[in-house]
Amino acid sequence: MARPTSSPQQHQAGEPATIDRSPGAPLPDRTNGPPPDQRPVVWVRPTSGKQGRFSLRSPTGRSALGIDDYLLDLWLSSEPARVEVLARLELSPRLTRLFAVALCGDVRELLTDDRSRMAVEVAERFADDGATVRELRVARRAASDAYFELGATHGTARSSASVLSCLAANAARHAVDMHVKASTVATDVAALAVDVAALAATGRGEVDPVGERRIRERQGRLLAAIVGPGYELLPEWHTADAVGLASTCYETKDWSIMPVLADALQDAGCENDDVLGHCRGPGPHVRGDWVLDSLLGLK
User: Fold this and answer.
1) Domain identity same for 96 and 210
2) What is the pLDDT, as a whole number, of residue 101?
């Protein structure tokens, strides 16, 4: 794992580089990489027998900033702020699509049309090169047909099951867009998922603000499960046992394996609270999980 080079302006060991995260602050110019004194560095907690290390997150796929309380609060605040959060995180197309899939998964029970459910499955497979462009296009057309048919037949009551199915189908069709944009995920998929879940919870044709915030908070946790704290796992933690468990967990989506994975990582010398707490915690866990991706070399 590469260490950042020292410079007179570099921050002291153990102290993260100063990053302006205020709303509207310009993103750093990453054309040729940030200068040494602006590199987003995260302090990895000391591991057994070590004094700890600096590590830079890979420039491909995930953000070097990671997710923190500020960005999660920003996600809860408003729709424009959610667009800004995803813009700042600079997720890869794969992770952006997997986040959209995770959002749709939260309202899967309201996807009453098989075409909508299939669209979400195809989107997930396409993100990991398990589906072709043609399959994606076919799924997109089918999902659009399902959405427009539901829209033409639903009743006027916003709390009706048909309306909820229509909203959920609209979220599903965005997941199979040929090029999933972060702004679309923030403004359409996330918003539709909230409306569907909140309306279904109240059954009164109106959104309960408390329920809406609770759903937004879960969306924030889904995003955090994908983005992580901003660093990769150390190479010595990539043992055969840990990688094998991660592969099985990822392929089967059997998240009960995560605590077992934590034990394997600890056996490899990992004592990092972020890593172990994530694996042993209640989740949510989804495809694109930052710990699994780091172990499997996915971006």
Assistant:
1) yes
2) 92
Amino acid at position 76, single letter: L
Q: Are residues 157 and 107 in the same domain?
A: yes
* Amino acid (one-letter) located at 145: D
Q: How many domains does the chain have?
A: 2
Please write the tens of the pLDDT for every residue from 280-291. 998 889 999 999
Provide the pLDDT confidence category of residue 206 given band limits of 50, 70 and 90. Answer: low
DSSP-assigned beta bridge partners for residue 70: none
